[in-house]
Amino acid sequence: MSKKIRTEAVDYLFDAILSLQDKEECYTFFEDICTINELLSLSQRFEVAKMLREKKTYLEIAEKTGASTATISRVNRSLNYGNDGYDMVFRRLESKKEN
């Protein structure tokens, strides 16, 4: 993990996020802390990651999500060389879906 983001302020933010109890609380909190565009950008990146894991092409992803090839490439780099955060979350979501 990058030491650049490991600060007391980021720890406090993550503690706040971990305190959220359901999707409705997430909507309430994230609508206050993020602009609509920031939230839509985050969800777009997450959708791009999902589609990359499904082996979709850049063209298919760009058409469905509206993401630029630069964004798709950045997400792809995170999937291939990042901290495996996307994979961790996708495994948990898939496991939850199966149960």
UniProtKB/TrEMBL annotation:
Signal peptide residue numbers: none
Entry protein name: TrpR YerC/YecD
Organism: Ruminococcus hominis
InterPro entries per record: Trp_repress, Trp_repressor/repl_initiator, TrpR-like_sf, YecD_YerC
Pfam family, one: Trp_repressor
